[in-house]
């Protein structure tokens, strides 16, 4: 009954999109006010779903993914998580360098990007180092 009464905002490609309710408050799904935040359990579930999407995107864009070391896989996962599959696909020189095992060139491509210079410099500096030295504190 409540799902019917609340209704939903727009749904696109099977995903609920935020919308303003009749009081002008940002809402998502079945009447969930975004200003109220979301429970930690929901945030963790969303993170796990986004992580699975990032791993899938990395595997689809990099046919060599499964043969890469874990630190270099983590670089690709982090980029796919941050940029999305479509965004990561816009890095053809980086993709080519990874496929050719040209780690210095791949790292240089990371650093010579808007993402590294403006959006997330610390993140992309860290990812470039991981790509170069093939080590990560998370492995």
Features:
mainly alpha; 5 strands; 7 helices; 3-stranded antiparallel β-sheet; 139 residues; single chain; Lysozyme
Question: How are the elements arranged and paired?
Answer:
Blueprint lengths: L1 H5 L4 E2 L2 E2 L2 E2 L5 E3 L3 E2 L6 H22 L8 H20 L2 H8 L3 H9 L2 H6 L1 H13 L6
Antiparallel strand pairs: 1-2, 3-4, 4-5
Helix pairs in contact: 2-3, 3-7, 4-5, 5-7
For the sheet with most strands, the description reads: 3 strands, antiparallel
Q: Low-confidence parts, pLDDT < 50 over ≥5 residues? A: none
Tell me the quaternary state. Answer: single chain
Shape: elongated
In spatial order, strands of the major sheet run 3-4-5
Q: Give the total of beta strands.
A: 5
CATH architecture annotation of the largest domain: Orthogonal Bundle
Could you tell me the radius of gyration in angstroms? 19 Å
What is the CATH third-level topology name of the largest domain? Lysozyme
Tally of distinct domains: 2
Percentage beta strand: 5-15%
CATH structural class of the largest domain: Mainly Alpha
Distance N to C terminus: 48 Å
Task: Give the SSE string.
Answer: HEEEEEHHHHHH
Count helical runs.
7
Query: Helical residue percent?
Result: 55-70%
How confident overall, as mean pLDDT? 94
Q: What class would the helix/strand composition place it in?
A: mainly alpha
